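dumping this here before i forget
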Amino acid sequence: MSGSVRLILSFHNHQPVGNFDGVFEQAYRDAYLPFLDVLQDYPQIRFALHTSGSLLEWLQARRPEYIQRLQTLVTAGQVEIIGGAFYEPILANIPRRDRIAQIQSYSSHLRNLFGQAVRGMWLPERVWEQQFASDIAAAGIQYTIIDDYHFRCAGMPQTELYRHYVTEDEGRTLFVFPDSERLRYLIPFSKPQEVIEYLREAAAQFTNPVLVFGDDGEKFGSWPQTKKHVYEDRWLRDFLDLLLANRDWIHVTTPAEVIDTVPPAGRCYLPDASYREMTEWVLPPETQREFVSLTRQHPDNAEWQKLVRFTRGGYWRNFRTRYSESHEMYARMIGISNRLARLAASEDSDPQRRDLLQAARTHLHRGQCNCSYWHGAFGGLYLPHLRNAVYAELIRADNLLEQFVRGDSAWVDVEVGDLNMDARPEVRLSNQKLSATFAPAFGGHMYELDLRTNAVNLLATLNRRPEPYHQRILDYVANAGRVSGEELASISRDVRFRQPDLDRRIQYDHWPRKSFVDHFLRPRLTLPEFRRNEGVIGDFAVGEWDAGVRKGERRILLELERDGQAGGLSGRVRKTVAISADRPSELLVQYELSGFPAGMPLHFAVELNFAAMPGGAADRYFYDDQGTRIGTLDTVQDLQSAERLSLVDEWLGLDVSLESSVKTGFWAYPLETISQSEDGFEAIHQSVCVIPHWEFLMPESGRWVAELRLVPDTAMALARQLAESARRRRDELGTESAVAVSSGFPGRGTP
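structure:
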């Protein structure tokens, strides 16, 4: 043997805020628990482990025995605990103050739990910007692990990526370890002996190399087919056996030990980057296809490979330009963080009021969990329950800030400003029950509607848009009947469909699926035609509207007006939105059409979309103005003449009614996206589209008026919360009584 190698094995376990309890449980059963079962049989193999705060909280509450076992391994010196930002945010997606606060609070939590000082942090999704070095160091962290791709983007050759380096920002230093992409692809998918051979090559070519494997713990049992491969087929045990058999030259170690015993190879500065695949996913679809095609050309041409290593993909922050919904969450989060910072700087020393701010900070940090803000092969932007969870945390934080400022009294208020950072003013109407945000510069839409009682944003919708992998679905179906089985297998590679006929369900939206989106339609247009994006003849849906606000003590009016075109005709639409402190659970919207020729037939429609209420369940349904159930929320409804349509989600405790002052036809249908995940391609219910529409002749008076009353009733949710609070109080009193009896308090039980 011509040399030795230090090998760092680091694992990252994560489940996002808001993921289903069953997903936590399955990942625990298939990956986290069996992994410890194996590793505890190899006490000589040391490893580093990062567990995200959202997962750790679940483990502490639901699987405390796992925490106890991990504490034993930490005490024995087998495990180094890696810290990080508490709720796994992308650092580029949150303010500096929140970066430092999340890292510090998680380090403190881990130190108290495991009795070990936290020296390193896991960099969420390995998204790096050089300024993070000073933030991470300021939070008390000594090192982090970054993809070797980042180092290659800095121009460093592969031959220099077998040691750790020191980097710096504003005079604060941080050690950075290159995380081997080659090892991430080998472990655990190649044969164990191939990993050993790769380590042998490194040991032979370099002096005292340090190689780092850092990747998702879910690869060890939770990803498709990996439980059998890793545990039942003994991949992990075979690999660990080989490490022990070669321990004379493979020294399995930890990042902290390397820092303490091996000097850094030098100083480096790294460009803004994330792992290689992420830089592809952030690109627009056509650009992404071109970039991937370019970088995959000529894999065996050495000169070509030298050239393409200088290519770089996209920049993580542009997920917020590619997906407007990501930016909407980000803007809401930034606004709450800024307000919290202002209130926290006040000199209020009341401990109960300070507790309100601390609770708001926790909810804010939970709402910064990264998964809902991006999409690729992973990422949760397309998963409604994860977006809903982010908004729930942000709404709870906002509620606490309002309580800090206003107490428990009834109120109404308006905020006008650049709320979504597009250099145009938006308007937020709020009271003690609702918060509704409008974009006059873009369609006059309501793009967020927060229900404070049950912390639901009814407009956490997602548009249907092109994705590069849609072409893979279409290509697979197009070739299915024309090529041989072997050729089809080559074309499909890992194409898996979770539902049939997904190719027929791919469709794209031409305007934001928000609420109070105004359409002029072709006369006698049918619902099937509208669903195919046919028959819209006006320019009101995405145009700019003039806006004004009239504020009273108990009621606020937002007045929106636009002159526009409808099928060659010119006219004006005026909509007035009213919110009040006295009727806090409703929005009243009056529409007035004018300027169109008298006697002219018009077909006017107002589109509203409702997220957070999925279809396909008996306790989620429509009912009409007679109180009759007419189908679950995934059904298509075409009511000819009605004054009201209501949507119920009993699980959320929510009843949303839309009432019209003028009898109308109601269309309603589900919207679903076709997206990818590690389990394959799938259709996902995103929202319910509800459209009251009126066909009429323009009155001789030159003015047509209708009112819509939107009432999100959360009484069921409030009753459920009160019952749960009473139950908890009874449990607390029962505990106190039990303590009193056992303690022999006078007058309580026997002495």
